[in-house]
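Hey, why these numbers?
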Amino acid sequence: MTLPLLAARRCWHAAINPLHATIYFSPDLGTELATLGIKDPVAVNLASRSAAMGAVGPGTVTATFYNYRHDLIARHLPAVWDTATPEQVLAARLRAADSTLRRLLGPETIGSPEIAEAADLAMLATEACTRHARTLYAAHADLPVPDAPHLRLWHATTLLREHRGDGHLAALLLAGLDPVEALISHTATGRGMSAKWIKAIRGWEQSDLDAATERLRGRGILDADGELTDEGKAVRERLEADTDRLDAAPYEHLGEEGLARLAELGGAFVTKAIGAGAFPRDLFGRA
């Protein structure tokens, strides 16, 4: 990349991904899908994340989500599509994104020129995204772009999130990390989900986490205390570097100045959203 080292990664982690992810921890999403008859929190999460691909079954979702337990997915898909269509779920998700961002950011920010500027920058970056081998990105890229600036921004961050995420799956395979090992090693960095949320959202049991931890210890990735070894840190950094390389095009297209501005604007929005309670306090960390 010709951009400053790690600039794109920092923007993605600090601004793009958190803005996208606000929807999945918002009570508004559950409220909207409940009106369609989808009330189980796991079904809400799975349906809203996979709806862009159509009425797909558990195999497709397990493959594209990577680190969810398959039998958890199979308990809800494809059955959820008998309750509501993917099109209905997508419309409900967009309404939830609207109410969530309005609540977290406030009317002054929602109506500000900064929101529109950030939306334009993020949409500009998506022009260089590619569909091949990127299932979730490609499905979302076929959706219409909303007119309202704050929803255009959310849509763009969704595209950028899924584009990087699809590439990250390839990097995980190259790193030799299975779904639970990927989660456990990420948690060990201090930036991944806590064990509580891995079990609640991804469906894994404590025995699964324990077994993965032992495998990682056997490979020299974790030490006896569950901390990353030097080799483990190197594995995680190679993983992120490979993901950066596969995801470089949107940010190269945006350019250094545009990337810095998007990071500045998006980071300020994320800070405000976090202050308004966008995410559970115990979401990240080793506990």
